[in-house]
Amino acid sequence: MSGRSIEQVQHCTTMADVRREIDALDDILVPLLVQRTGYMTQAARIKQADTEVRDEARIQAIVDRVRDRALAQGGQPDVLEAIYRGVMEASIAYEHREFVRLRAGHASDAAAQTAGSAA
Ligand SMILES: O=C(O)C(=O)C[C@]1(C(=O)O)C=C[C@@H](O)C=C1
């Protein structure tokens, strides 16, 4: 089969070659991961409860999908699963922080409103 990502891997003779190729790929990956992480803020805003942040069914669906896509590209499903589980754990931790941050001050706003209406 042609057009698979694994076939884009360049033959290298030195570690400098290897690292130049890796840096070039990271230049593509990092902006995409920044974008992906931005959606955690959106999710944190949309979800109704902090207990909804971790969604095991969605995590499994993503793992299954990533494994399939890795295989189709000639990659290593176990390696991609491990990478994605790491990404998702970091994303979940961030989403929890965003959930709290987006609501910080709202409780005291409500308290101030209550105090105001009582006065
Ligand atoms: O899909 C969601 O509910 C998300 O918040 C996104 C995401 C992800 O990183 O893709 C993060 C946390 C959830 O456990 C599942 C998936």
Automatic annotation (TrEMBL):
<dbReference type="GO" id="GO:0016829">
    <property type="term" value="F:lyase activity"/>
</dbReference>
<dbReference type="InterPro" id="IPR036263">
    <property type="entry name" value="Chorismate_II_sf"/>
</dbReference>
<keyword id="KW-0670">Pyruvate</keyword>
<dbReference type="InterPro" id="IPR002701">
    <property type="entry name" value="CM_II_prokaryot"/>
</dbReference>
<dbReference type="InterPro" id="IPR051331">
    <property type="entry name" value="Chorismate_mutase-related"/>
</dbReference>
<keyword id="KW-0456">Lyase</keyword>
<protein>
    <recommendedName>
        <fullName>chorismate mutase</fullName>
        <ecNumber>5.4.99.5</ecNumber>
    </recommendedName>
</protein>
<dbReference type="GO" id="GO:0009697">
    <property type="term" value="P:salicylic acid biosynthetic process"/>
</dbReference>
<dbReference type="Pfam" id="PF01817">
    <property type="entry name" value="CM_2"/>
</dbReference>
<dbReference type="GO" id="GO:0046417">
    <property type="term" value="P:chorismate metabolic process"/>
</dbReference>
<dbReference type="GO" id="GO:0004106">
    <property type="term" value="F:chorismate mutase activity"/>
</dbReference>
<dbReference type="InterPro" id="IPR036979">
    <property type="entry name" value="CM_dom_sf"/>
</dbReference>
<keyword id="KW-0413">Isomerase</keyword>
<feature type="domain" description="Chorismate mutase">
    <location>
        <begin position="9"/>
        <end position="99"/>
    </location>
</feature>
